[in-house]
Amino acid sequence: MTSASFTPGRVARLSILGLGALVFLAPYIFMVSTAGKAQSDIFTSSLSLIPQQWFYVQNFAKALSRVSMGRLLMNGVVVCALILVFQVVIAIPCAYAMAKLKFRAARALMVLVMLGLLVPIHATALPLYVAFDRAGALNSYVALVAPFTISVFGIFLFLQFFRAMPDDLIHAARLDGMSEPGIIARVIVPNAWPAVTAFSIFSVVAHWNDLYWPLIVVSNQAYATPPLGLLYFRAAEAGDDYGALMAATLIITFPLVAAFLLAQKRFVEGITMTGLKG
Amino acid sequence: MSALSLRNIEKSFGGNHILKGVTLDAGPGEFIALVGPSGCGKSTLLRILAGLETADSGDILIAGRDMTAAHAADRNIAMVFQSYALYPHLTAAQNIAVPLVMRRLTRARRLPFLGRMMPGQRKAVADIHRDVRDMAASLKIDHLLDRKPGQMSGGQRQRVALARAMVRRPSIFLMDEPLSNLDANLRVHARGEIVDLHRRAGVPTLYVTHDQAEALSMADRVAVMIGGSLLQLASPQVIYEDPQHVEVAKFIGQPRINLIASQVEDGATVALGGTRCRLVDRAAAAGSAVTLGIRPEFVSVSRQGNEGLPARIERLEFLGSEVIVYCRLDAIGETMVAKVTPAEGADLSPGVPVRLTADARHIFVFSKDGSRLAAAPLSSIVTREALHG
């Protein structure tokens, strides 16, 4: 890019965007900075982003040794992957049926989906907890995954996306001899990748970062998800060792950041949903 | 035995009566064009025939077998959609192969990886590839086989859609306005190709269009549908020269037929200017309202004489081989259109007073409900009566 392309308007736009990005990134930047500071450095009265002594190695070593970080990340991956797979496998046929098939209860189901969107997990947490307790399923992957397998948000998102798909495409598939499950597998899903990508981001980000539900159903460290593990780490191990805590947080947020940076183009494509044309 | 027969098909959508008892038969290898204005129910009829919609009542017979309740896939009907409805994620070759894969390979064979290990799989897949290539070659789209629909032009997509429909040798071929997304030049070219393709394949074809030129030029028989009813089913020539309903006469023909409100006079005659016709069965009472129709090519325009309807020229359209003359009738203020040769139109210009004469042999008389009343030029009846008398 040549300097000639920096017109005043462009400069103004870029500086506003840059300022906005800085505001939103400030906590993260502060976290990265703190993860590299020694204990004495953190508690000085002056506020500086650059650590006086580089303490990254020590802090990361502490974070990795005091808590089974591998186990936490593993749990996070297993739980998020299971939730995502179940959500997609359940939501896509539901949304297809509601968007493209004609049946009597379609309207009533639509109302139920909208109602479902209005009910937060906090409202159902207690009855769910009691149910898992009675079933003896607390402290398990089942307890972490099961309540989220049916995502009304997912159904709603796919429903909107499928409605925009031309009916003729499905008619052509029927005439070509496909069954309804065949249509979903061979026509709908291959053309719904933008929607699936968008939904995956929402789902994985929400459940990777979720602290509320794991805190309720898990008391055994073996099943702790990353945010819960962080909580144990702070309570039991680190105390006020913020350097190590921030290092642990960095490790935990790293997978999401890396995934986003690697697939940035596809993510943006998925969220704006411009993938299907022609 | 007819290849296809629809009996009394009725369909309503939420109180809207879309199809009012449509009955239609197609012979083996016949090309029938279903033509009508938009919203007349022609596409709905096609969808019911394909099994994509269900009729409220009526029967569908394909090659003599009752298919009224059969699933779309079991009817062996292929369809070309207006939007082409190609699978956007598949290449042209894969698009064309889909109907073959779904029909020739069992469910187990279609599985990814596992299917490949089944005995005879290689042969079946090779056969499909060969058939796809043959089909593509016959439609001259072999060079497009690796492209996806997004990378093709409208005309190319239309050919791929045709290939996908033809490749499995369907028992009936349906087309829902397949040319309406093409530009005018390409459309005329594609017309000829589809007729040619139909002749080679010999599959009975039902072709839906709102373009009467397409219907007349392509079909063996034309079915005119208006307001949910099939008004006339006949050869293009009969539809044009002998319309049985005022709506058919109005819809077919470019420029549109002239329709003049009139009434039956004494002796069951009707008059258009100085031209008189007598109703053959003489059933209509004197004074009952009728509509007289005369096609523009049977109206002659003259600047001399005092025979015929006095009128004034409003506008001339020069079309090369012919001139369309729009005239306003002095007496009733309605517009009458005449089609003349450029030689005849040479001395005509807007504002000029003229006399219009209708050819009595080509006057259609329609009753108030739109049905056609048989009529003949008065002079010929007189001679015939004189002969018989």
UniProtKB/TrEMBL annotation, chain A:
Location in or out of the cell: Cell membrane
Transmembrane residue ranges: 12-30, 72-96, 108-132, 138-162, 183-208, 242-263
GO BP term (any one): transmembrane transport
Broad class of where this protein is predominantly found: membrane
Record-level GO cellular component terms: plasma membrane
ABC transmembrane type-1 domain location: 73-263
Topology of this chain in the membrane: Multi-pass membrane protein
InterPro entries: MetI-like, MetI-like_sf
Gene3D superfamilies recorded: MetI-like
Keyword tags: Cell membrane, Membrane, Sugar transport, Transmembrane, Transmembrane helix, Transport
UniProt similarity note: Belongs to the binding-protein-dependent transport system permease family.
Name this protein carries in UniProt: Multiple sugar transport system permease protein
TrEMBL record, chain B:
Keyword annotations: ATP-binding, Nucleotide-binding, Sugar transport, Transport
Location (main, coarse): membrane
Record protein name field: Multiple sugar transport system ATP-binding protein
GO CC annotations, alphabetized: ATP-binding cassette (ABC) transporter complex, substrate-binding subunit-containing
GO molecular function: ABC-type transporter activity; ATP binding; ATP hydrolysis activity
Similarity annotation: Belongs to the ABC transporter superfamily.
Compartments where found: Cell inner membrane
Record-linked InterPro entries: AAA+_ATPase (IPR003593), ABC_transporter-like_ATP-bd (IPR003439), ABC_transporter-like_CS (IPR017871), ABC_transpr_MalK/UgpC-like (IPR047641), Mo/tungstate-bd_C_term_dom (IPR008995), NA-bd_OB-fold (IPR012340), P-loop_NTPase (IPR027417), Transp-assoc_OB_typ2 (IPR013611)
SUPFAM superfamilies reported for this sequence: MOP-like (SSF50331), P-loop containing nucleoside triphosphate hydrolases (SSF52540)
Domain ABC transporter: 4-252
Membrane topology field: Peripheral membrane protein
